[in-house]
Amino acid sequence: MNAVQRFIRSRVLLLTASILIVAMCLSVLVQGQSQAALNRTVDQNSRGLYDVLVQAKADDNGGLMQPEIATGQGGISFEQLDSIRKLSGTSVAAPISLVSRVSQNLETPRLDATDYLGYNAGLAGTAGDPSATDPSKWPAAESVLSDTAKKYRLTASAVKSDGTSDQTLFKTTAEGSLGKAKLIEEEVAGGKNVRIAGPEGETGIKFPAPAGGSEHNLFNLSVSLPLAPQVTESVVAVDPVSERALLGGSGDFLAPLEKAPPADARNAGAIGRHFESLFTSGISMEQLKEGPDFLGVKLKYWAPLMTQYQQAKRAGQLTDDSQAIPLIVRSGTSLDLKYSVKIEEIDDAGNVTKDVGTVTRSLDKDYLPFVSKSPFALEWPGSKDLSKLLGDTGSFGQGLYNPATWSTDFAAAPKYKDGKTAGNGAVDKSAVPGDWVTVNRLPEKGANDAPVDQTQRTPVDERSYRENLATGKKPATPLAMVYGTFDPAKVQEAAGDVNRLPLGGYDPTPFTLTKDADGKDVEKTALKPSLSGTGLVSQSAGAITDYYGLAAARGYEKNASVIDAVRVRAKVDGSWKQAQPEVEKLASEIRDMGLQATVVAGSAREDASIFVPGYSKDDAGKESPLGTVQQSWVRQDAADAVSGSLTGTNLTLLFLTLCGAALLTGASTVSYVRKRRREAGTLRAMGWTQRKIRSWVLAEFGVGAALLAVAGIALSLLSWNPATAVVSASVLVLYCGAAYFAAQQLRHREVIDQEPQHDERLIPVDSPLTFASRQLSTNKFNTGSLAVAVGVFGAAVGGLAALLIDIPRAAGASALSGLAAASIAMPSIILGVSGVAVGLLLTMVTGRFELGAKRQYLGILQAMGWNPDMLGQVRFFENAMVGAIAVPLGVLGALGIGLLLAPYAALWAGIAGLVAVLCWIPIATKVVQ
Q1: Mind giving me the DSSP string for 502-520?
Q2: Fewer CB within a 10 Å sphere, N or C end of the chain?
Q3: Can you count the helices (H) and strands (E) in the chain?
């Protein structure tokens, strides 16, 4: 017979080679699918809204970039911006800057109690609004107050929360009597006059100045409450045209800002007089509801503009240099500020006779900076809003009355110190605390310059984590001109998730508390911003303006280097990898201008863990840390790191799976060939030389090697991957090495059975355990071969387990890492399980070489009267002893592979190796019978 026929006839060689070829095909297929999924995941999530971040100077952040890129320090001129835009590789260059910190006094809070007097032509003039309710349909009078005045105690309080604890800013009490109003007709010159008056004996309720008192109107009794704390907002500047190009359709909210007047047409006085003239010359009700047209933009929020203009003019704040600043303001706020009023009915002695209730209102999604007039308008329990009877008056409300205070002092980005680095590359940070900032102060003077009692409210200190910067000069009082609103949540959504890059101030970057000051895990809690705006936590900017607005806010009269950052998108399509050469070229050209250009294509979001020291202090002044918080930062070059690391893991899994199978095939081959010694002896007796016998056997292995080579070449061509060729070549080398070693075992030796019958060294057979020991010691080579095969199996299982366990760590800590690891998790598990299955199958094949002899002596034992349980024990003890020999090999091999390939999971590798060997024992006992 020729070598091919002998190869097929041998069955064992055919079976082991077939198993190895099938394992190669399946493993390469699974690995290819895993690599394709990895590449697809990385490519789809590694290119954000822009490719290069340009700054005048950037700190060395070790590859982890904090989200606050608009620091207020500027450094980039408009000439440099123009040069960046003229580069051939630039598609979009969008500048951004931090403008100012703006302090805003909220309008005086009030408590409204329904005290509706019914329709009266002398009080309610409805002729001007067609949407007003017909007088005949007005409801009957109603009130939550009694006909006679009753004495009440009102306790007003404001509470601020940082998300973890509440802090009472003030609690003020006032008492007085209130009752249902009545209409009084009086004779006056020319006719009768109707006025509203309180009931007899009503004193009203008056809180300390600067709060006003109480008064009756057509629909309510209104009580003026203590001032709410001052709120501080930040403002950023963008170029609306390029910002819209950067954001795409999500940036349409900036469209009105593109129509803002040029710099020489923004005089606040001229714009204010223009709107006054509209009312003088006449304007329709419909126009007022939609908003007067101003250079193609309908100004829905014209009322705050008018009232603030008139107030600033009366107060002498406006000058000839005062400029109007167009703004797109944030919709809602994440500042957690609650205002409450507790209402109690009391007797003359001050004892509570009835708890009327407590009403509370918070700054919420309806709050608009620079616009909202009465965010803390509270309603007495049981009250209702009947002002709609007068029609839709929303467009005619005065809006925020007092102009905001613009400052050239503003808070820069926080500073951080690096801590220890975790195994997945995540770097712990520690915030650098700054000074204490005092908030919750009352104004020095109230209305009509009346002095204010400062003792009624205790100032509150907040820890600042931001350096106070002064830029520009004191400007002439600007006038806020609200063009529209934006939703920060939608902006954050437009910025992406895994590949999110910071926009620079108007996209929220929240902090989440994860550990307390003692390092113990706590329920994840989103932190809230501070009143001062200088705390660690900041919310989205309160408003967005353009660069002419920045010049007006800072008092600049000529161009200055005020651009904090420029976000540049390269003029190249495709994934981050395809765009990388052009992006790197563009970044190099920008660096030649003397600017810092950071390539962020291929970056990904990563949660940074930040320890926050000195967060609060007690009455004695002792400071306490907050704990550890998380914030989404940006991991530079995350795509390269993730792709390289997980590709390496993929290939290592493939190599370990197939090379482990090849080693087990070799062990099986060696054990099988030793069974052919008798055949080799016959050939030797026929005159064959030892060399000819080895060549004769190697020819059979050559058939298997040829099949492996063909399979390896086909797989390499199909996958077109050099790694597949390398792994296939390694498998072929291991197979050929095993074949050569097996052929060396065919050296024929004469074996003469001269076993003494009464040798003391013989183990007496008195139990299944001693019989199993006798059999294994008699067939030492086969026992050793099987133990080595099982040990290799355990080591391979341990190595595969270590690689699988180490995938999350190897991937890194970024959001892309988690996504990429998830994409290859199932293929990697399939690859690992297939490797375990192939290894287990090959060890079973090795164990079956002595099956004929085992069945023979088990039949003899059965004839001697051994029952099935005893025969089962013999098989179990044989496999257990082989397993005992294999355990050190499997555990030490698994530890070695683990330390080499996945040091962080080496211990798990050893445990997996041990478990694999222990599991082999019962499996082999059941299968090999």
Answers
A1: --SSSS---EEEEE-TTS-
A2: N
A3: 21, 36
